[in-house]
Amino acid sequence: MPDNNDNFYRHLGVYGICVADKCILVIRKILGPYTGKYDLPGGRLEKMEFLEQGVIREFREETGYTIRKLKNIGVCDFSVRWTLQDNTVENLHHIAILYETDIDLEETTNSIELFKGQDSNGVIWISFDEVTSANSSPLVLQAIEWIRTGTIPLMRGAFDYTI
């Protein structure tokens, strides 16, 4: 983690990993440090919301799908540096609680919910081989590692998205 505590924030979120036919369900990110990258559906908890409630709500808001089954698989964290719109640099400690999720693939999905702060610009299934550090957030990279090995790496990562 950088020593500079100016513009330091900690983000705790819940995220769903959904897999079918060697593909992972991701969103197209339009806000935050992962703008323009694929990301896992998920995010912050609302007041008095339990972890499972949060991942179910976030998943529905960002993908249009309803989670049928979920299982907690663990936690990962990493540091992220990124440039804000005003060209200041933010240091973020991102803590992610990860869930394996199942959805009904036959379900006709609703469109993603539109509201102020919505950071999903749609949902897409991508093959595991399409995931790269250039096109995907650290969360998607962690998910692919979990899919391939059955474990979440204990080693903390650091990602620099500054200009």
What does this structure look like?
By secondary structure, this protein is of the alpha+beta class. Strands 1, 2, 3, 4, 5, 6, 7 and 8 form an eight-stranded mixed beta sheet that branches. The longest helix is centred in the middle third of the chain and has 13 residues. The two termini are 18 Å apart.
Keywords:
single chain; 163 residues; alpha+beta; Nucleoside Triphosphate Pyrophosphohydrolase; 42% strand
Which CATH class is shown?
Answer: Alpha Beta
Question: Mean pLDDT score, rounded?
Answer: 87
The helix-and-strand class reads: alpha+beta
| Helix and strand sequence | EEEEHEEEHE
Q: How many beta-strand elements?
A: 8
Query: In the CATH scheme, what's the topology name?
Result: Nucleoside Triphosphate Pyrophosphohydrolase
Amount of helix: 10-25%
Q: Which oligomerization state do the chains in this entry correspond to?
A: single chain
Shape: globular
**Count of domains:** 1
CATH superfamily: Nucleoside Triphosphate Pyrophosphohydrolase
Give the uncertain stretches in residue-range form.
none
**Beta-strand level of the residues, as a percent range?**
35-45%
Radius of gyration: 15 Å
Largest sheet: 8 strands, mixed
CATH architecture: Alpha-Beta Complex
Between the first and last Cα atoms, what is the distance in angstroms? Answer: 18 Å
**Tally of alpha and pi helices:** 2
